[in-house]
Write a structure and sequence with these properties.
Chain lengths: 466, 338
């Protein structure tokens, strides 16, 4: 394998791994903030217990998210130095702002939140977790603005042999960003919500701490329901935008070789032959692709063959068709799971409202499995987005094969790939073990009486500058 | 008037200085928790003393790297790919350390805790050691060709001078961390930190003098920026003597200020010595990356300047506030989070 392939495997594995934790952190921080706010407003200790219990799990997850995220800031330079040179003028800014605005916010206020239960007034403490949540959302916004630039470059000009920024506002208002960002954040809220729902389901099936877990379920299912609707709506917006800006990705995610009929049918599944550039055994639903692409029941969608011709004229000879099967199937996995999340949330909210939740054994069992749905859906969505953009790393400007580091050897990449993978596997195993431990300990575990707050200046010799 | 390029060079330097000032004592506390603490409770006191801060302190590094990327893409690209394995090791260290703090206290099995203690130790030694090696190699000069690509052999990165730089920085972190311990810990732990910091005084003095001596011969820093560096060197000697005085007199706050100043002077000198270059080519002076040749365009720098100037007061404000909130010493007889 060469440096390009190894670097791609490394980027894919470290980023997908990182993105298991990120959405859970974004989702849990938001839900915990809601729980703690309810504690402050309703003065009911039940909610404090919730914030603390889910907080423990959040912290374990957050730690792994943070450390796997550090690597992200470095690996563009380490493995993709030519990319960094070429787009740094535009791409570096959102990363720097992300660090300055988001990372400081979440890390500082998380420290205050963890250690501040007894030291801060209740509402200030609740404000801390809201600021953590805001930090995680800012972080998503700025990193997605960087990603959106790769999908759909705006606010840039090609000069001095590289891309230079000439309109920052355009980068912040990139249409791609404003469909990608809500979709990702709703997906993250759903990840946190279904996690809480699933863990609560396990406890409810065993009839443990029923009141506590029912309460947690209630908060989470509301978030899940809103997120589920948000995912569907923002996903639809994203598809409309995709047809306009990256028709090749759309065509690949549909396995569409020739231009479609008008109105365009949606392919549920197909046996794709990328050699012969044709499909067999297709199952199609009429009108649906037209609706997905244009929001109406008419209109033809351009196929890969005619796009390939168009791109060859535009960008010179080369293969502009991404790996079709991966794009096609990851899109289907994502949409099916997204639909399932919405359906299960509606069902759960219905059962809760009818007070049938605790007796609905099948629903609870399904929700345990459904913990995995958002995780798989998130990953599939990113696989589709990034694989579907190939061969480009920055659409229309730079191909992935030209982006890799010039001075780095395959051996070096292989070494770091193997070591990081091993490290990540260990992290993952430890994290799961700790999750199970925390969950087994249950919500009653750490209700310790608050300690009296000693006046820091009473004891002699305690002043820093004495 | 300061050009934008110069301003951003200073800002990147300030972020690295801030990182070593803050995370420097975190690293030191991490190392000291292995050697100065005698039992699990004391070890936990050490870890809790940096508990609320270490994550935010580490963000200084992330921000420094992010600022480098935004303002000097060529510097970022050449340095991170050129020092590939160095950065890989730094990342292993930071990753292990970060989770170790969080994971260690989650179970009380002795083997579990001991394992994470080792991770904390190595995770606290590797980053300053490798950063020290890398910064020293940077001022010594590394083979960079006309396309800004760095092709370093092992001896360009690892040699007597660079290793001395790495060890010096690591030992300074230990010392800085111990003095931080005198501020945040109590009773016997506090005493032990102070004693250990005192006993490091002569060792670190020798390391610093040896490092500065070698820097005089191995780099062009003193011929390029002789005056200012000699001046800083004098200040450094005074500060170091003062630190010894304050440690002996148990004026811990002042001692911490002095150890912090030493850290600031050292890292700042590295950046002053580099300027106006950001990476020195050992092949030809013409191939060196400079604040001009490595930087982003004016528009991008201007946007980043506005944004960072608008955000920095808030960031500094709430970080200082968080130190104020946790001004109380860690008492290992009370409840501890980690």
């Amino acid at each position: 394998m060469d440096v390009v392939e190894l670097s791609r495997i490394q980027f894919a594995s470290t980023t997908l791994f990182h993105f298991l934790f990120v959405p859970l952190s974004i989702g849990l921080a938001f839900i915990i903030a809601i729980m703690e706010t309810m504690y402050v407003v309703k003065k009911d200790d039940k909610y404090k217990k919730m914030a603390k219990f889910w907080g423990h799990i959040f912290l374990i997850n957050f730690a792994v998210g943070v450390v796997t995220g550090i690597l992200q800031e470095f690996q563009f330079g380490m493995n993709w130095s030519e990319y960094s040179r070429f787009v740094g003028d535009v791409f570096g800014a959102p990363l720097a702002i992300e660090a300055l605005l988001a990372f400081f916010l979440e890390s500082t206020f998380l420290g205050l939140w963890i250690f501040g239960w007894d030291r801060l007034p209740k509402w200030v403490h609740a404000l801390c977790i809201w600021l953590v949540s805001l930090g995680t959302i800012f972080s998503a916004f700025f990193i997605l603005s960087a990603n959106s630039f790769m999908q759909h470059p705006v606010g840039e000009v090609l000069q001095n042999g590289r891309l230079e920024m000439n309109d920052f506002l355009a980068i912040m208002t990139n249409g791609q960003l404003w469909v990608e960002f809500p979709h990702t954040v709703f997906g993250s809220f759903a990840t946190g919500a279904l996690f809480i729902v699933g863990i609560s389901a396990i406890a409810l099936l065993r009839k443990k701490h029923v009141a506590f877990y029912k309460g947690s379920f209630k908060v989470a299912i509301v978030v899940a329901l809103i997120s589920g609707i948000g995912i569907a709506l923002s996903g639809h917006e994203q598809a409309l935008y995709l047809v306009e800006t990256q028709p090749m990705k759309m065509a690949a995610s549909e396995g569409l070789w020739e231009d479609s009929a008008d109105p365009a049918p949606w392919t549920v599944f197909a046996n794709i032959d990328t050699e012969a550039k044709e499909n067999s055994g297709e199952l199609k639903i009429p009108y649906v692709l037209s609706f997905l692409s244009y929001g109406e029941f008419s209109g033809s969608v351009e196929g890969m063959n005619s796009l390939q011709e168009r791109y060859t004229e535009l960008y010179g000879p080369g293969n502009y068709i991404p790996p079709v099967k991966t794009t096609f199937w990851s899109f289907r996995v994502m949409t099916v799971l997204g639909g399932a999340v919405l359906a299960l949330s509606i069902w759960g909210a219905y059962l809760y409202a009818r007070k049938k939740l605790v007796t609905s054994k099948w629903y609870l069992r399904i929700m345990i499995v459904a913990i995995s749905f958002p995780f798989i859906g998130n990953s599939a969505g990113w696989i589709m987005t990034e694989i579907g953009r190939q061969p480009w790393v920055v659409f229309g400007y730079m191909k992935t094969e030209d982006a890799v580091s010039a001075g780095v050897t395959a051996g070096e990449v292989l070494f770091s790939l193997i070591t990081f993978s091993a490290l990540y596997l260990i992290l993952f195993a430890v994290m799961i073990t700790l999750f199970v431990r925390e969950i087994k300990k249950g919500p009653e575990h750490d209700i310790e009486e608050t300690e009296p707050i000693a006046d820091p200046f009473t004891k002699e010799g305690q002043h820093a500058f004495s | 008037m300061l050009s934008l390029n110069e301003f951003w060079f200073i800002l990147v330097a300030v972020l690295f200085v801030g990182f070593f000032f803050l995370e420097g004592f975190d690293f030191g506390v991490g190392i000291a928790s292995k050697f100065v603490a005698k039992d699990d409770l004391e070890r936990r006191a050490f870890i809790n003393s940096i508990g609320p801060y270490w994550d935010a302190n580490e963000v200084w590094l992330i921000t420094a790297i992010g600022a480098m990327f935004a303002a000097f893409p060529n510097w970022y690209a050449s340095m991170l790919s050129g020092f590939y394995l160095c950065f890989a090791f730094i990342l292993f260290g930071l990753i292990g350390r970060g989770v170790a703090f969080e994971f260690r206290g989650k179970a009380d099995h002795p083997t579990w805790r001991k394992t994470w203690d080792w991770v904390i130790l190595f995770g606290s030694i590797i980053p300053p050691l490798v950063f020290g090696i890398m910064f020293t190699a940077l001022i010594q000069g590394v083979p960079i060709d006309e396309n800004m690509h760095m092709h370093a052999g092992i001896s360009d990165v690892i040699n007597v001078y660079t290793v001395l730089g790495g060890v010096t920085l690591t030992m300074l972190c230990v010392w800085h961390g111990l003095i931080f311990g005198t501020l945040r810990l109590m009773d016997t732990l506090r005493e032990r930190c102070r004693r250990a910091a005192k006993s490091l005084l002569p060792i670190n003095a020798i390391l610093l003098v040896a490092f500065l001596g070698m820097t005089f011969f191995k780099t062009d820093m003193f011929s390029v920026h002789g005056n200012i560096l000699e001046y800083l060197f004098m200040v450094g000697i005074l500060v170091y003597i003062a630190s010894g005085y304050f440690i002996t007199r148990k004026r811990d706050g002042w001692a911490f200020l002095m150890s912090g100043l030493i850290m600031i002077l050292l890292i700042a000198s590295v950046f002053i010595g580099l300027f106006p270059r950001v990476m020195i080519s050992s092949i030809s002076e013409a191939y060196s990356l400079t604040v001009q040749s490595a930087s982003s365009g004016d528009y991008s720098l201007k946007v980043m300047t506005y944004i960072s100037l608008a955000l920095l007061p808030f960031v500094l404000g709430y970080q200082i506030w968080s130190y104020y909130v946790f001004r109380k010493r860690v008492d290992h007889k009370e409840h501890m989070e980690y």
